[in-house]
Specification:
By secondary structure, this protein is α/β, with parallel strands linked by helices. It is built from 18 helices and 14 strands. It folds into 2 domains: about 220 residues, 3-Deoxy-D-manno-octulosonic-acid transferase, N-terminal domain (Rossmann fold, 3-Layer(aba) Sandwich); about 190 residues, Rossmann fold. Strands 3-2-1-4-5-6-7 form a 7-stranded parallel beta sheet, with helices on both faces. Strands 10-11-9-8-12-13-14 form a 7-stranded parallel beta sheet. Strand 6, helix 9 and strand 7 form a beta-alpha-beta unit. Helix 7 packs parallel to helix 8. The longest helix is centred in the N-terminal third of the chain and has 18 residues. The chain is globular and about 65 Å long.
């Protein structure tokens, strides 16, 4: 297997050197860097005391929360199919830390930087039998060096958007050795499989297994208790839940809501910002006041359903969708990218979103299935169309219910990918001997920073 190129290693060194500078203006980058610097130490410490060389070890990596949800459903299935495995889970983004902490794994931590010496050290310590990357966040140094040691490298929930920068020069050439190391890849669809081959994954190593996100969202909805207090925020009135919103989304939502209240005074809106910072919530308050809307009540202060609820914490959205009767998903009016439309669909809710949805396969499925509505570009036109569809959902229960049922059916039809992906991984585990590299001597536990 060809190693990574000198140009990739040079680019990585420059990137790592610049991270502390970027972290001065971006707290999220700074936080990730602080944790990542000692991640190799912490993983090595865990391995020195807890690595059981008589059991296979599977190392899952997922960049952030979305990829983590996909990995979670496969991980749960693999636990059932191969219960003897030890499982290591790493992530890149600080936003994934809460998810990582609750996963049923043996150890979870940040992914160390993809530098040769760091990668060698972690591979020495963990001696993984299987290295699994979720979606597309494959790191070439780690993949090529793992493959060279006899570790099977896999991709799950693999998807490559047509506009991905990874498909263009120079990224494609820099990353190609890593993708060439993949032993098996589970692609979401056949077009994704073709683009994976373009990146360098050998075509005979690619299977179409579907998207485990469908299994993940269905499991999360099924796991919500009917007595969950969050569901009560939709009681007593037709409620629109606007999830993962940004400023451009709220510029459409709030004027539309003002017009809806003129005709339907009992209508409600729950706004769940993607980043509920104090500054963002203050901006939401100002927009609401300018439109003479009810004062947004913070979730942390609310005791029951209110006309306009502003969610001031993360982690509540998947359940709050269950409090609604219709949904708006943010990201389609800015550059952030459309967020997940499957969570509201799994609650049997019709979904609307902004015009920049083309990179979302799930949004396309909802549109094709008559379960979703895309708003046009431009604020006046988008507000007008949103008011029209909102009014239709409020006044025609049969129409709204039928759209919601179609959305739920699309989620149901997509399930099964987690099981197929886990079976693919279990085949790799069962077809190879255990890694039995010597255990490291116990070491002092490193600090988190």
């Amino acid at each position: 297997m060809p190693p990574t190129s000198w140009s990739y290693r040079a680019a990585l060194r420059v990137g790592v050197a610049l991270v502390p500078v970027v972290g001065l203006v971006d707290p999220k980058v700074g936080e990730g860097h602080r944790h990542r610097r000692r991640a190799a130490d912490r993983l090595a410490w865990w391995a020195s005391s807890n690595r059981d060389r008589e059991r296979p070890l599977v190392w899952f990596h997922a960049a952030s929360v979305g990829e983590g949800r996909q990995a979670e459903s496969v991980l749960d299935e693999l636990r059932r199919q191969a219960p003897a495995c030890q499982i290591v889970y790493t992530h890149f983004s600080p936003s994934a830390e809460p998810l990582a902490r609750r996963l049923p794994v043996d150890v979870a931590d940040y992914l160390p930087y993809d530098a040769p010496s760091t990668v060698e050290r972690v591979l020495d310590a963990l001696a993984p039998d299987l290295l699994v990357f979720a979606k597309l966040d494959l790191w070439p140094e780690l993949a090529t060096r793992a493959e060279a040691r006899g570790t099977s490298v896999a991709l799950i929930a693999a998807t490559v958007s047509p506009g991905s920068s990874r498909l263009r020069w120079p990224a494609r050439e820099l990353l190609r050795p890593g993708y060439a190391a993949v032993r098996v890849a589970g692609a979401i669809s056949e077009p994704d499989a073709q683009r994976l081959a373009t990146l360098g994954v050998p075509r005979p190593h690619i299977r179409v297994t579907g998207d485990p996100r469908f299994d993940s969202v269905a499991a999360r909805v099924a796991g919500v208790e009917p007595s969950d207090p969050l569901l009560g925020f939709g009681a007593g009135g037709a409620t629109m839940v606007a999830g993962s919103t940004w400023g451009p989304d709220e510029q459409i939502l709030l004027p539309a809501f003002a017009r809806i209240l003129e005709r339907h005074p009992t209508a409600r809106l729950i706004v769940v910002p993607h980043e509920p910072t104090a500054d963002h919530l203050s901006g939401l308050d100002r927009r609401a006041a300018a439109l003479h809307l009810p004062v947004p009540v913070r979730l942390s202060a609310a005791t029951g359903a209110v006309p306009l609820l502003a969610v001031d914490r993360v982690g509540a959205l998947a359940t709050l969708y269950g409090a609604g009767t219709m949904a708006y998903v943010g990201g389609g009016f800015g550059r952030a990218g459309l967020h997940s439309v499957l969570e509201p669909a799994a609650w049997a809710m019709p979904v609307c979103f902004g015009p920049r949805w083309e990179q979302s396969r799930d949004a396309a499925l909802l549109l094709e299935g008559g379960a979703g509505t895309a708003l046009p570009p431009g604020e006046p036109a988008a507000v007008t169309v949103l008011v029209e569809i909102w009014e239709k959902w409020l006044t025609d229960e049969a129409y709204r219910s039928a759209q919601g049922a179609r959305a739920a059916a699309i989620v149901a039809e997509g399930q099964g990918a987690a099981r197929r992906s886990a079976e693919m991984l279990a085949e790799l585990i069962s077809s190879r001997p255990l890694r039995t590299s010597p255990s490291a001597a116990p070491a002092a536990r490193p600090s988190a920073r």
